[in-house]
Amino acid sequence: xxxxxxxxxxxxxxxxxxxxxxxxxxxxxxxxxxxxxxxxxxxxxxxxxxxxxxxxxxxxxxxxxxxxxxxxxxxxxxxxxxxxxxxxxxxxxxx
Length: 95
What we know:
Blueprint: E1 9-12, H1 15-28, E2 31-37, H2 42-57, E3 61-67, E4 90-91
Parallel strand pairs: 1-3, 2-3
Antiparallel strand pairs: 2-4
């Protein structure tokens, strides 16, 4: 996985990347903002540049982008919440 600078939205494409990013957030004690999205979702595509701009302005947060069709196993944790997308839950890194 490529090195990511603070203030960027990190694309998560595998379960291993998902686990690594959650561990990185836990280690850094940063809040995680997860953008559950899909390539076919118009509102998701509309919000992507907005989230990228917010990520630039808030490097104290970790922004993850997960395509629900690409990495289904990552969404199991949020399965009760994930009824509609776009969905952007925030989770303290200690959980």
